[in-house]
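Human: I would love a firmer grasp of how sequence relates to backbone shape in proteins. Could you go through the record with me and say what the backbone is doing? Here is the record:
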Amino acid sequence: MKALVYIPFLASTLLLGWYLISPDGVTPQAESLVRAPAAPADAQVSPLPTRSTVSAPSAAVTAEPPSLRGTDIDGTLETDTQGNLVITGQIRNLFDYFFSTVGEVSFGEAAHRIRAYLATRLPEPALAQAEALLQNYIDYKAAVAELENEFPVIADLDAIQRREEAVQRLRASLFSREAHAAFFASEEVYNSFTMERMAILRDETLAEDEKSRLIEALRQELPDDMQDLLVPQLHQTLSAQTAALQAEGAGPGEVRRLRMSLVGPEATGRLESLDHQRQQWQQRLDNFASERRAILDYPGLADSDKQAAIRDLMSQHFEPNEQTRVASLMVDD
C-alpha cells in the first residue's frame, strides 16, 4: 500500500513519457491519462470531495469494503513520551489506505472509518492532533479537486509547472511545515526531477549524449528509496514505448534515443548488450532447428538413429545447462 503515496507522480511519469514522443507535445494518450475514466452505467459513483461533502456529519458505516478484506492496514501511528503524535509519512499511508476505497463507499464513510480507527489506537492529546491532521488532509483533497478545474488537461511543460506550484502553495497553506515535509517532500522532489528532465529533453541546444548525461546525473541525485521505486516504473514505460515505436517501424537509432532519455547511458548499454545476446541466442536456436528438421526429414533413417543424431547435434550447438531449455522449446516441433 506504500505505493498509494506515489501514485500521483508515477502517473506523471507515464503522462510525460507519452508527451515526449509526441511531435507536438500533445497526444490522445496523454489526454486520457488526465481525464477521469467514465464509470460503468451500473456502478455506484462517488463524487469528488468538496468542502461541503467532507465537512458533513459522519456517514453511517456499512460492511467493510471488499477491497480491504484480507489486507493489513497500512501505516503506523507513533506517539512521543508526552503522548503527542509523531508526524511521519506513515500517517498519510494510513489515510490513503482508507481513502483508496472511495468508489466502493462514499468519501464521508471512508473518512468516518479513519476517525474510528484513530479513536481505537491513540490516546489524547495524540488523538486530537491526528483528527486535526485528518481534517487538513480532507480539506486538501477537496481543494485539489477544485484546483483540477483550473488545470483540466496538462498540455505542456509550463502548465505542469503552474499546476505543481499551485499544489505546493495549497499544501503550505493547509499543513504545518512538519506535516508538509512528512506527507509530500518525496513527491515534490520527484516532481521537480520530472520537470527538470522534461526541460532537458526539450532543449534543442543540447546534443543527445549531453541530454542523457544530464538526466542520469539528475536521477543519481534522487534519494535511494525513490530510485528503487522509479527504476522499475521507467522500465515499464520504456517497454511500452519501445513496443509502440517498433510497431510503427522505428529503427535501432530511435529505440536507442528513447532508452537514453528514460534510463540513461549505462542502462542503455546494458540493454543493447542484452539485445545482442538475445540475437545471438536466437541465431543459434534457428540454426539448430534447421539442422534438426533436416535430420527428421531425412528418408531411410530409423527413429532411434534420428534421435541419436539430434542428441549429437544438440551437444555440438549447446552447453549442458542450455540443452534442457532447448529441448523444451522443441518439444512441440
